[in-house]
Amino acid sequence: MSEHIVSRYDDELKDVQRRIAEMGGIAERLVDLSVTALTRIDTVMANTVIMEDRRLDEIQRQCEEEAIRIIARRQPMALDLREVIGAMRISNDLERIGDLAKNNAKRVLALDGQFQSKRFMTGVEHMAELSLAQLKDVLDAYATRDVHQAFEVWKRDADIDSMYTSLFRELLTYMMEDPRNISLCTHLLFCAKNIERIGDHTTNIAETVHYVVTGEALTQDRPKQDESSVTTVTYADN
Amino acid sequence: MSEHIVSRYDDELKDVQRRIAEMGGIAERLVDLSVTALTRIDTVMANTVIMEDRRLDEIQRQCEEEAIRIIARRQPMALDLREVIGAMRISNDLERIGDLAKNNAKRVLALDGQFQSKRFMTGVEHMAELSLAQLKDVLDAYATRDVHQAFEVWKRDADIDSMYTSLFRELLTYMMEDPRNISLCTHLLFCAKNIERIGDHTTNIAETVHYVVTGEALTQDRPKQDESSVTTVTYADN
């Protein structure tokens, strides 16, 4: 390849990576805003999340189109091909993270004016803080192609899953205490599930960083501690 | 390209498509089994789903590796490239459908021995029937590269979303009627949500069929009728 072509190709790859960095910034912001909107039942902030998520969808489409164009025109091999495939995967995960933040924001609209209790929010807030920290770390790991940092993020996902399982039990107990809690706690259960899913997409990104850098899939079994699906709380009739 | 190479390339593409067809068959079976397991609270059947989902994960990994190998070695263009990209996307969606069926199966294990009522199951069963019919149709559309059939599937997803929204309201009402319903109905809410997500992945597949055949993305706004996120039921204290 002539130097001229190589340099244009490099520019194209960098352009895709620049879009991923932009998507990462927006996704972080949406996760952060959606949880603040939830804990304050702030519908203005919730509507901002819903609006801004569109931008994420738009960049994701551009990113994917650009990646496919690079494959078709430049026929990348080895590391370059992994970079392009990796960018497609990560842009997908970031777009899904935006959708999940948007879904939480929509629930704020449902909860506006409903019976509320601050104490129910604490667990969701803690889960969100942890998942946001994980998201920041994995985006750093991608930016610096740091496999070790990616692996640390990947391992820590089990903590989010454990928090989710105990929060599931807690919210079910609140519902049984007082039927007026049912609507709020059901939406909070789904918010918590969305945050747990954000954690899963963050773990996917960690796996992609590993694949891009090493060319190998992370073969260990995923650290999975979400036991909520097999958890119930039995109502004790007093 | 020599005829010999072209024919090996064709074989590789067909091999990927054969794997997708196998995945489609397994995904249909898992969705079907998981719902029957749920309506009968049949833990043996539920465990079968959990076991068989591993096979789906395994084929998905093979499928993706094979697709990347084809891109690297054969440098496909135009329709061939779309076929490979399409196969990667569809295998991803089918793998996720398997995960969602597995999650519903896990909930059967949680509900075993809990307070149950047949009448709560009807709505989930109907949703599942519709989403299974959609999945079959979209796999047909993929097998025959039928854009019109894919578009019909795509449009009908709105029906699943509407069913989900009314089921959400119904299950919340049951919880408010009697706190002994809370555990069961919460799990059924998540099962319904999982089926709604299966519908979304089916819609993704319809979009991919459209992309593979026409080279264009489906640009219309997605038919989205899931209003459950903004739905609440207020407890009327009698």
From TrEMBL, chains A, B:
Residues 20-108, 124-209 form the PhoU domain. It is found in: Cytoplasm. Its main location: cytoplasm. Plays a role in the regulation of phosphate uptake. This is Phosphate-specific transport system accessory protein PhoU. Homodimer. Coiled coil: none annotated. It comes from the Bacteria. Keywords: Cytoplasm, Phosphate transport, Transport.
